[in-house]
Each structure stands twice: as structure tokens, then as C-alpha cells.
Specification:
This protein has eight helices and five strands, in the order H-H-E-H-E-H-E-E-H-E-H-H-H. The protein has about 220 residues and is an alpha/beta fold.
């Protein structure tokens, strides 16, 4: 848990998106602060990139920054409403292409066409089988020498997740989309995924994993 169907229901219709998803960056002050202090220092080696693919952009929390670093940006999401909001938000940016997928494949994205794949704070809700499907698809769409940065759950490695610290604000948001207190204690992270498992799956696909970082939050 959560399943693809639950993710679709939550992010396509139930969640309120009070700040277009930027509310998830409130602990950092703003999405801009989080981008420049947490994310960009970790991915700047891969930027700019000719063609960037963002998986599960939501309402464009990171899209607003990625679009500045590429000639062509593709965004793909399970939620039709999320893609519609991105189209509306970024209507003036003609170098963006939009795709709706089934929550586990990258249909519409051509083989060997992407230089950099990025996903942050979204695939943490994807279980191990879904992560493996996405890894296979990323292998298909990446150009030779291309790179990917994927943020995923590590909950399978956390033995006492019920005792993990939970910010009151996050619990509030999760309750708004019908998630129980028990699930809130895990931030609705996928329980079958760990850094070790993802590394093993990547190795099977012969990816060259240049680094993994386990954050101090779940």
C-alpha cells in the first residue's frame, strides 16, 4: 500500500492542492528554497539537458524550475487533473510536452530519447513492483549516457516506522485525502521499498548507480 488506484484517487480528485503542491515544501520555507538548497546542488551536474523527463509532476512544483534547464521537457503523470493543471500553469512555455500514463509505464516517450529523468516526492508512494516497472521504462527511454535521479521510499528498511517523527502539518494534509492515522505515521510511503532493494533492481538492469542518499525523514 498505497496501490496505483489509491494514488490515482488521492492525487486526481481527493487532495486539495492548496498551493499547487508547493505546500509540501513549507518545512523548507518555500518550493524555491527547497529547490535551490536541497535539490539543485544534488542534480546540477546533469543540467542543462537537451530533453528532460519528469515523472509525476503533480501541479508543477519542480516543473517550474526544470523548464529553465532544457530545450525540451516532458512531464508524465497518472492524474489527468494534474496534467491539466500543468498545461494551464505553464501555457506560455512551448517546449513542454504532456502525457497521462497508467502509473507504471512511460507510454508516449520514445526509446533512447531522454537525457535526464527526474522525480522527487512522488514515487515515494510507489510500491516496489511499480518502481521496478518504472526502472525498466527509464532504461528504455534514456539516451546512451543519460542519467536519472529518482526519489523513492525507504520504509522497508525502517523497523519502527510507527515511532517515526511526523510533522503535524503533514498528518493534517494526509487526513484531508482520507488517509488514516496509521498511514499518516508512515507519511503514506510505500512499505515494500528500500534503498537496498532499488539498488539491486537497478543492478539487474545494468544501470550504473553513481550514488544513493538516505534522507533522515521517512
Amino acid at each position: 500500500m498505497p496501490t496505483i488506484e489509491q494514488n490515482y484517487s488521492a492525487w486526481n480528485s481527493s487532495y486539495l492542492w492548496t498551493k499547487a503542491g508547493d505546500e509540501w515544501s513549507d518545512p523548507w520555507g518555500s518550493a524555491r528554497n527547497q529547490w535551490y538548497t536541497l535539490l539543485l546542488p544534488r542534480i546540477h551536474h546533469y543540467l542543462p539537458a537537451r530533453h528532460i523527463l519528469e515523472i509525476a509532476p503533480g501541479h508543477g512544483r519542480w516543473t517550474q524550475f526544470l523548464l529553465q534547464h532544457t530545450e525540451s521537457l516532458s512531464v508524465i503523470d497518472l492524474s489527468e487533473n494534474c496534467i491539466a493543471k500543468c498545461k494551464e500553469r505553464f501555457a506560455d512555455h512551448k517546449h513542454i510536452k504532456y502525457y497521462v500514463n497508467n502509473g507504471k509505464t512511460l507510454q508516449g516517450i520514445e526509446d533512447n530519447s531522454v537525457d535526464f529523468v527526474f522525480s522527487f516526492d512522488s514515487l515515494v508512494h510507489a510500491e516496489y513492483d511499480v518502481i521496478c516497472k518504472y526502472l525498466q521504462e527509464i532504461q528504455r527511454v534514456l539516451c546512451p549516457g543519460g542519467s536519472a535521479v529518482i526519489h523513492h521510499s525507504n520504509l522497508a528498511a525502517v523497523k519502527k516506522r510507527a515511532q517515526a517523527p511526523v510533522r503535524r502539518r503533514i498528518v493534517k494534509y494526509l487526513k484531508m485525502i482520507g488517509i488514516t492515522k496509521k498511514r499518516a505515521l508512515s507519511h503514506w510511503r510505500a512499505s515494500s521499498v528500500s534503498a537496498e532493494l532499488v539498488l539491486a533492481a537497478s543492478n539487474k538492469l545494468r544501470f550504473q548507480c553513481t550514488g544513493q542518499e538516505v534522507f533522515k525523514w521517512v
